[in-house]
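Data card: per-record layout.
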Amino acid sequence: MSKITPVVLCGGSGTRLWPVSRQSYPKQFSALMGEESLFQASLQRFASVAFAPPVIVTADQFRFIAVQQCHAAGVTPQAVLIEPDGRDTGPAVLAAAIHLAQTDPDALMLVAPSDHVIPDTAHFVRTITAAVPPAKGGQLVTFGITPDRPETGYGYLELAEPPVWDTKVLPLLGFVEKPNAAAAATMLADGRYLWNAGLFLFSARAILAAFARHAPVMLDAVQAAMDNGSHDLGFLRLAPEHWSRAPALSIDYAVMEQADNLCVAPYTGQWSDLGDWAAIWRETETDGLALSGAAQAIDCTGTLLRADNEGQVIIGIGLQDIVAIALPDAVLISHKSRAQDVKAAVGLLKATQAVQADRFPKDHRPWGWFESLVVGDRFQVKRIVVNAGEALSLQSHVHRSEHWIVVQGTARVTCNNKVKLLTENESVYIPLGSTHRLENPGKLPMVLIEVQTGSYLGEDDIIRYEDVYARETRPKERQKTCACSSLAAPDISAAIP
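The structure for this 497-residue chain is written out next.
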């Protein structure tokens, strides 16, 4: 049997799991259900011989996070496509189909969101492989989940008759939008409705034909974005001027709801898209309680308590059907029945310009991450973690100086014309305006404490001259004309390792 190529979509930034999921670090990259992230669990699901290396479709700001997590999971993707901006699942799936069709128009592709929980991998793979024959025959196969409650947060698939579970695929009558509670209860009792899992199996040829017939404007725009894309550090960046012309539509709206060559493969195993904190509670509760981190409950029922930071404790007393999530910079407390309304809370924070709406306390970068420990008037203290073998850009600052103290591992520090190695409990001072770089030459993460002092401490006070991650840089000869700086960069060519 020809192998199936997973197309893993991980460019979204859902808000219903705030404050753990935020725009800068969304839920698919978080370890919500164990040691590995939801994205990594999705990759591991496709580790069997039935699957080819995956195609990853993600956003520019997540490209290094995705690759780092692939590496940690022992997965090497065959391609990573970078969306210039999020335009829902239609253009993302289309870009992956065009990519696969370049080498094999009949390649089978499994469209898989990266934030689902499917514990029984063997059952899941059996369901996928059973749907291969109709997919090879030109059918567009969607996967339906057996509902176990009148859920209002999912769309539904309508069948002609209640499914017989030993049947491999079934005809699809139509799609049903997210219902109200009464309609959901009626559909559950009817037995002819399945939850729409957002999983699809088809050949590249079949889905491209469907887009040509039902969404030609989207096809033209995405084809042009692919044709004019650029390769960058192993990524394929789609051309933004063409990508922007693609209608922002889900694959359901763009194609599936209009196509006449659809069928459904029922999946009877456990599944969740972890759409809100009530879903997290259902997937993790024991005797009605879901406790994570240093969480304790006294006389609580139907409650989720989560402390996500080392050294942080949360205790609930006498709570019933409550969700309480504690992070260093934000706390969420909600009745479990109102879990879908967390999105409205994020909107409120955005309206007040609170940084907690979008920004995660840990700021993830291609080389590692950092977090602010203390912020005061004219000073800031950070913890910086640089992954093994990685390096920050060669840069300078206009408004601040820095003092670095290594607390774990070894750092190679470039400051103007000097390069030195620092080990634990050694430090270096970086004067304002100095051209500098920080590297980790070791095989383990390097940790240092950075103390910044100056009149302005924002992250935009960085002038980059060289960067191994191809982020925007400013040539040294242009620095003298920079409106924000009169400092000239010294000649550091001899100091670069």
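Known properties of this structure: The CA atoms of residues 19 and 330 lie 7 Å apart. The first strand starts at residue 4 and ends at 9.

See the next section for split statistics.
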